[in-house]
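User: Okay, second chain of the day. Same drill as before: sequence in, structure tokens out.
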Amino acid sequence: MELVGVIGGGTMGAGIAEVCIKAGSSVLILETKPEFAEAAQARIEKSLARGVKAGKLDQAAADAALARVRVTLDIEEFADRDLVIEAAPEIEALKVDIFG
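Assistant: Same drill. Structure tokens below.
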């Protein structure tokens, strides 16, 4: 999959996004508030930095992976995605809204 979307950038969503960017996919993460978007981006950056520190990933690969992820607040940007993975919190009203 070249273009992946992840709905939700919490622990699970950020982890899914990280696996995808390490595999070479371009990932778009959807969040509901700017502060959640910033937290999702920071979560991924921190995880990649841990991988570099542990020697599991070199800095160039981490930088390249990070360049393949972007967080948005606009679901309309997902129209071009080859695959969209839902990783939103288990809140029924939220799920109904997403799938609606």
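Helices lie at 11-22, 34-53, 59-67, 92-99.

User: Thanks, on to the next one.
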